[in-house]
Amino acid sequence: MAGVYLHIPFCKRLCAYCDFYKSVRLALIDEVVFAMHRELLERRDYLHDRKIETLYFGGGTPSLVSVEQLAGLKRRVEELFDCSSLDEVTLEANPDDLNPAYLAGLREAGFNRLSIGIQSFDDEELRWMNRRHTARQAEEVVREARDAGFSNLTIDLIFGVPGFGEELLRRSLDRALALDVEHISAYHLTIEPDTALGRREARGELHAVEETVSEREYALVHETLTAAGYEHYEISNYARPGFRARHNSAYWRGSEYLGIGPAAHSFDGSSRCWSLDTVESYISAEPFRFECEELSARDRLNEYLMTRLRTAEGISYGVIAERFGAASAERIRREAAQPLSRGLLSSTPEGVKIPAEHFLLSDHLIGMLFEPEQ
Asked: Which of 56, 9, 58 is nearest to 29 (CA)?
């Protein structure tokens, strides 16, 4: 099984925290969509004979694209790939782009999952992030999506925002729970250098929250959502039973995927490729430009550790032995003994995992188990 990711890199406004590749040149949307059809055709053999299980429109802001254009890209994927097993079709959307007619059009076109970038239910915090919508708009659009027939909704929230604090976060969580969505992604704010927030930090106008604040707010998110019946199945992701994000879960399982569009990434099981084209060069690229990296056995082992230890299931010694050799499995078992004794890792029937209360230490713990360079 495999997935297809369609990258729509356009935004009306640049959020203060975002460091993904994006463009505000909305006049180029039509030309980029046309080029994406061409790239799909040229790369139709990338996944070989794999069946497509998930289709994900990400960005940027895919909800800036018309329903007709989105439906056309979906049809092209279905024409070129075996989509007999396709059962999750997701669109990332901003609340202020959605309305009843647009939502009805998406459902008619076969979209069955929406990922709505809400981030906060506080208008002042939304303005601080340079978001376009209000808290009321966010709540209204969730209800409109329900009315349109969407039964699988996920919303994004951000915590660890300097100057706003736990009580505001608690109110946002309460308003999120009142909407009763199937999935919530809760991300700690990261201040990246090449963003508006990064530039403010460089000028000394802004500082990231202290580690103790991060820990308290993370604990608040975890305790609030799990008490409400959500499964904390990945560092930043919570789902009602049966509603894990299948596309993103495939990344964490190491499944293959094809990425289409400017700056999109692809993975075929042994190598990774990423688009070097900007929006402007992508339109007329012949051929499309990529950089590819062949992954060594060490790279693939470390990727397995990095992705699987982000999840509630953790790693399997049996899988490691099968894919990378018994010696690697035994080495990792030895390396895991010390953090296991301290409670930073916990045992599972198959191997070890990071307990949810220690997910904030994941980078450190994963690094302890990495295969070192020879």
From this structure: 9
Cβ partners under 8 Å of residue 113, min gap 6: 88, 89, 90, 91, 150, 152, 153, 154
CA-CA distance, 117 to 138, in Å (whole number)?
Answer: 9
Which residue in this structure is represented by tokens 């802001």?
61
How far is the C-alpha of 54 from the C-alpha of 275, rounded, in Å?
Answer: 21
CB 191 within 8 Å of CB 129:
no
pTM over 0.85: yes
DSSP state of 210: P
Backbone φ, ψ for residue 357 (5° rounding): -70, -15
C-beta neighbour count of 234 within 10 angstroms: 22
Q: Which two tokens stand for residue 233?
A: 């199945």
Specify the amino acid at residue 349.
Answer: P
Q: Report residue 257 as tokens.
A: 């995927």
Tens digit of each residue's pLDDT (9 = 90 or more) over 100-112? 999 999 999 999 9
For 295-328, give the DSSP string. PPHHHHHHHHHHHHTTBSS-EEHHHHHHHH-HHH
Phi and psi for 153 in degrees, rounded to 5? -120, 140
Collapse the DSSP code of 282 into the 3-class scheme (helix H, G, I; strand E, B; otherwise coil) and give the result: helix
Do the Cβ atoms of 324 and 331 come closer than 8 Å?
no
